[in-house]
């Protein structure tokens, strides 16, 4: 605000005091470090004041700062970070932060360009790598290159389960079912134990018509579902519907009926309660297609109790 009304020296004094007084904040990481954007902003103000040497020193401190939980989002920070990059074109952190703030303003193509520079300058920055991959996928629609960048991100951070989940969604869009299965099955045990990864793998099994494996995987996993969340339960139903149809096609109507009945259940491990209205319509809808030749509704193996 002080800068906006032309009181640059007052803004410099405020930032210098904040840095001098040491770390502050409410999250653990901010209690042990100076937020990098303080250094970058102070450097920008020094540069505007004509003190380029002090500006470079502050930009260098910003570049060395911990990038955890640093998400610039103010319009003013675009000029700050561009000034830092102009002063030091090798500052990968400034390029990464610049991409973040540009993305927050829906300037997606500019953000993609900034993240491309960030991963080139700072290839160890996993989040920049992930952001670049996602921008390639959603902004430039370059799915093949996005997939290559997701693979690089996973190589950098093989235990980050979120990378596997996002990459799986991209591969699903590419109809690369076997590649999806290989991705999740080859993940570290700590990753496979995460329920979102279980859902990704189960969905890939279903797309590959490997219904038994999907059902078994889902059955041994406990899911925590928030209000209105039923994605895992939806996969359970798809898996058992697939099994029911396979049994029906094979002429095993009794097993098909059991699988159709399973579709109407709400297993406790999915964390989704049965709605007040019972699933009588769903059971009735599936009953006729389970009938053996010559049977009529209400008799034989195609009959559901209570339907």
Notes on the structure:
- There is one protein chain.
- By secondary structure, this protein is mostly helical.
- Among the domains are: 1-117, Serine Threonine Protein Phosphatase 5, Tetratricopeptide repeat, CATH 1.25.40; 206-221 and 229-307, no CATH class.
- It contains 16 helices and no strands.
- It has helices spanning 8-20, 36-48, 52-64, 76-87, 92-104, 108-121, 126-138, 143-156, 161-173, 177-185, 189-192, 195-207, 211-219, 231-249, 253-263, 280-286.
- Helix 1 runs antiparallel to helix 2 and helix 2 (36-48) crosses helix 4.
Put the structure in a nutshell.
By secondary structure, the chain is mostly helical.
Question: What is the CATH topology assignment of the domain at 1-117?
Answer: Serine Threonine Protein Phosphatase 5, Tetratricopeptide repeat
Order of helices and strands: HHHHHHHHHHHHHHHH
How large is the share of residues in beta strands? under 5%
CATH architecture of the domain at 1-117: Alpha Horseshoe
The amount of helix comes to: 55-70%
Global shape = elongated
Structural class: mainly alpha
Largest β-sheet summary: none
Low-confidence stretches: 299-307
Q: Give the overall pLDDT as a whole number.
A: 89
Number of discrete helical segments: 16
Q: Tell me the distance between the termini.
A: 68 Å
Beta strand count:
0
Q: Nearest-angstrom radius of gyration? A: 27 Å
Please report the first level of CATH classification, the CATH class of the domain at 1-117: Mainly Alpha
């Amino acid at each position: 605000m002080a800068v906006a009304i032309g009181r640059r020296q007052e803004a410099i004094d405020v930032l210098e005091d904040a840095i001098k007084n040491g770390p502050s904040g409410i999250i653990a990481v901010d209690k042990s470090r100076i937020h990098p954007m303080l250094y970058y902003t102070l450097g920008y103000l020094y540069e505007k004041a004509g003190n380029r040497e002090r500006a470079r020193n502050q930009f260098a401190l910003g570049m060395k700062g911990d990038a955890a939980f640093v998400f610039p989002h103010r319009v003013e920070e675009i000029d700050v970070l561009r000034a830092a990059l102009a002063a030091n074109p090798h500052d990968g952190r400034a390029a990464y932060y610049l991409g973040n703030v540009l993305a927050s303003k829906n300037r997606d193509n500019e953000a993609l360009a900034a993240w491309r520079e960030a991963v080139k300058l700072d290839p160890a920055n996993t989040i920049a790598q992930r952001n670049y991959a996602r921008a390639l996928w959603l902004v430039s629609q370059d799915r093949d290159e996005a997939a290559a960048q997701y693979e690089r991100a996973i190589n950098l951070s093989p235990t980050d389960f979120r990378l596997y989940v996002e990459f799986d969604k991209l591969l699903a869009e590419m109809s690369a079912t076997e590649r999806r299965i290989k991705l999740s099955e080859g993940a570290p045990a700590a990753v496979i134990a995460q329920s979102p990864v279980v859902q990704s793998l189960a969905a890939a099994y279903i797309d590959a018509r490997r219904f038994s494996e999907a059902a078994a995987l889902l059955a041994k996993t406990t899911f925590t579902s928030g209000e209105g969340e039923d994605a895992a339960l939806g996969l359970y139903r798809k898996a058992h519907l697939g099994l029911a149809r396979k049994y029906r096609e094979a002429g095993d109507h009794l097993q098909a009926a059991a699988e159709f009945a399973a579709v109407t259940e709400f297993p406790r491990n999915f964390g989704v309660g049965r709605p007040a209205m019972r699933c009588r319509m769903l059971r009735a809808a599936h009953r006729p297609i389970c009938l053996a030749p010559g049977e009529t509704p209400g008799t034989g193996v195609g009959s559901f109790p209570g339907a």
